[in-house]
């Protein structure tokens, strides 16, 4: 098969295979099925994502840790669609040399996350084979307050980001033993963010009636902001200096020769699983209150603008175009 790039492949699937009525767009974070919940409200949102040892985690990752990350990746997609988690199906491909202890650990780890995020397993499949450990999850949730899409951004919108930037990117480097110069507690914070990202399952549904566009940050702020631009056929200006950083990430930035370039590199890293969204200026007070209600910090990091494509303010304050390429699988 000729490689045409991950997002080109997704576009082909959308064109030739997507079911009418069951999917808004394969470019969105999830599909929407016109089915009401037991109270006659909302729509059922379906998302699917997989995690593989050596790709989404280190090659020696435990089955429990990989399964928990896979679940959290899917929960982040539900949050980006404005959906409250309900159920999930899980398919696992085990390596031949796995043992019963690994299975028990996986069950205990998922039980912990199910309780934390209010979701229950309803089915799936499991096999063993010669390949690396792989966990695929399909998660379902109810969008009772509205569905958020990627394409609704309007010129003049504020651009917001939940949480912080770059912790997943740095957490991978910690896991690989590359950031030993950071204090042990900072390394622990970053590593945990990489292994166990926090999907914004409370914030996403609260935001749904108030935002114009939303996406979760899996491939990096730059790449995923680029998706919003492409889907809305519009532009964004982002401010690297406004990017929210954890204390641990700030320590790393301060240790780099060029702090602006360091912030830009964090914007290009993936595995944050935060929410990037746009909303009208008059919604600022509402957005801040909802973030407070969800106990999740949010930061304004830019503005939707005329034109098409992604722009940033450089170190001199000038608006310049930027390559929005982030992580892709092929």
Describe the protein's architecture and organization.
- This protein has about 325 residues and is an alpha+beta fold.
- The protein has two domains: about 5-145, 60s Ribosomal Protein L30, Chain: A (2-Layer Sandwich), CATH 3.30.1330; about 160-320, Phosphoribosyl-aminoimidazole Synthetase, Chain A, domain 2, CATH 3.90.650.10.
- It has ten helices and twelve strands.
- The chain has helices at about 5-15, 65-80, 100-115, 165-175, 185-195, 205, 220-230, 245-255, 260-270, 285-295; strands at about 30-35, 45-50, 85-95, 120-130, 135-145, 160, 215, 235-240, 275-280, 300-305, 310-315, 320.
- Helix 2 (about 65-80) packs parallel to helix 3 (about 100-115), helix 4 (about 165-175) crosses helix 5 and helix 5 (about 185-195) crosses helix 8.
């Amino acid at each position: 098969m000729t490689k045409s790039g991950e997002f080109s492949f997704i576009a082909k699937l959308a064109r030739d295979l997507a079911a009418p009525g069951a999917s808004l767009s394969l470019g969105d974070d999830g599909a929407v099925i016109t089915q009401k919940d037991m109270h006659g409200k909302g729509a059922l949102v379906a998302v699917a994502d997989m995690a593989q040892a050596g790709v989404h985690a280190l090659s020696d990752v435990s089955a429990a840790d990989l399964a928990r990350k896979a679940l959290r990746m899917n929960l982040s997609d539900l949050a980006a669609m404005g959906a409250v988690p309900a159920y999930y199906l899980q398919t696992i491909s085990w390596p031949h040399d796995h043992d019963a202890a690994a299975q028990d650990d996986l069950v205990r780890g998922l039980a912990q996350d199910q309780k934390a995020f209010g979701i229950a397993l309803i089915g799936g499949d499991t096999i063993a084979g010669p390949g690396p450990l792989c966990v695929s999850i399909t998660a379902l949730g109810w969008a009772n307050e509205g569905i958020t899409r990627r394409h609704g951004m309007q010129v003049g919108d504020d651009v917001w980001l939940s949480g912080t930037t770059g912790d997943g990117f740095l957490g991978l480097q910690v896991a690989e033993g590359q950031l030993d110069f950071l204090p042990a507690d900072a390394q622990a914070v970053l590593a945990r963010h990489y292994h166990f990202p926090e999907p914004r399952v409370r914030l996403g549904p609260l935001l749904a009636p108030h935002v114009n566009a939303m996406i979760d940050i899996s491939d990096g702020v730059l790449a995923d902001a680029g998706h919003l631009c492409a889907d809305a056929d519009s532009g964004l200006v982002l401010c690297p200096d406004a990017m929210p950083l954890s204390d641990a990430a700030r320590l790393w930035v301060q240790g780099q020769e060029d702090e602006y370039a360091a912030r830009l590199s964090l914007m290009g890293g993936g595995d944050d699983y935060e929410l990037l969204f746009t909303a009208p200026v008059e919604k600022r007070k509402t957005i801040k209150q909802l973030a407070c209600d969800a106990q999740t910090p949010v930061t304004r990091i830019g503005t939707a603008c005329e034109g098409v494509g992604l722009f940033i303010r450089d170190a001199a304050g000038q608006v310049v175009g930027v390559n929005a390429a982030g992580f892709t699988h092929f």
